[in-house]
Structure formats: structure tokens, C-alpha cells
Specification:
The chain is an all-alpha fold and about 170 residues long. Helix content is about 75%, strand content about 0%. Bound molecules: MU-OXO-diiron.
Length: about 170
């Protein structure tokens, strides 16, 4: 049975992951608006990945006999100055998510909930990748420095990103 404090914290994390999905869909919308269809593809895949993250937590709560309680999803920003501002916001947001995951892990440790610690290990590794991806794209955009051809090439590169279901979900099927 899932400890109530942990159940509450994971429910909050489900909401945070869904909010992340909503944020990235908003960024995808603006990329389409600006004509960057490759960047829009990148953010649409982020959108799907965040839904996967929410679903992993959702399934985990149920598997431990807990109760998922879905709360309202707050509104998200709808406009950014340029792609660089969007990827900077992505990195800042992922750093916040990393601290949320770390707090969850600290709570699971305090409560001696070893199963939750084990489940969270995948998220700890995932956050390293999430932050690295955003950082790389910020570096690329800084190198390009607004050059049209550079932006065109980066957009083409990001158009090639393909969605793969998060492994804890894929392995469960
Ligand atoms: Fe669910 Fe982007 O971390």
C-alpha cells in the first residue's frame, strides 16, 4: 500500500508532468506560427514524452493500490521572443522538474519506500538527458546567432526527431 504522503506527492508530480506537456505544446504552436516546423516537431515529441511521464506515475500509483486524483492544469505561457527564448525556458523548466524529482526521491528515502525509490531512478536518469538536450540546443542557437541558413539547417535537423515511447511504458506492454 502506498504511503499517503507519497501518494499525494506523486499526484502533484502527475499534474506537473501534464503541465509540462501543455507548456511544450504551447511552444510547438508558436514554432508553427513562426514557420519552424522542425522545431514544432521537437516540441510535439516533448509533449508526448511528458504525457508518458505522467502515465508512468499514474500506473505506478495504481499498481501500489493508491488513488490518482487529477487536478486542474494551470495555464501556460503562449508567446516567446524567439526559438532561443523557448529553449532557454525549456532548460529552466527541466531544472525545476529535476528538483521536483529529487524532492520526491528524498521523501521516498525518508519514508523508507524502496519501491518508489526504484521507480524514480528512471526519472533521475531521464532528467540528465532532458537538461542536456535543452542545453545542446541553446548552444546551437547561440552559435547560429540568428543566421537564417543556420536556423533553416537546425530546423531540418529537429524535423527528424522521432517519438519513442518511454521505456517503463514500452517494457510493460
Ligand atoms: Fe517529465 Fe521533461 O520531464
Amino acid at each position: 500500500m502506498l504511503n499517503k504522503k507519497i501518494e499525494e506527492a506523486i499526484n502533484a508530480q502527475i499534474n506537473a508532468e501534464l503541465w509540462s506537456a501543455y507548456l511544450y505544446l504551447s511552444m510547438a504552436t508558436q514554432c508553427h506560427d513562426l514557420g519552424y516546423s522542425g522545431m514544432a516537431n521537437w516540441f510535439e515529441i516533448q509533449f508526448k514524452e511528458e504525457q508518458d511521464h505522467a502515465q508512468i506515475f499514474y500506473k505506478y500509483v495504481i499498481s501500489r493500490g493508491g488513488r490518482v486524483t487529477l487536478k486542474a492544469i494551470d495555464k501556460v505561457q503562449t508567446k516567446w521572443k524567439d526559438p532561443l527564448a523557448m529553449f532557454k525556458n525549456t532548460l529552466e523548466h527541466e531544472q525545476v522538474v529535476t528538483s521536483l524529482i529529487n524532492n520526491l526521491y528524498a521523501l521516498a528515502t525518508k519514508e523508507k519506500d524502496y519501491a518508489t525509490q526504484s521507480m524514480l531512478q528512471w526519472f533521475i536518469d531521464e532528467q540528465v538527458e532532458e537538461e542536456e538536450n535543452a542545453r545542446t540546443l541553446i548552444d546551437n542557437l547561440k552559435m547560429i546567432d540568428g543566421n537564417g541558413y543556420g536556423l533553416y539547417m537546425l530546423d531540418k535537423e529537429l524535423a527528424a526527431r522521432v517519438y519513442t515511447q518511454a521505456s517503463p511504458l514500452a517494457n510493460a506492454e
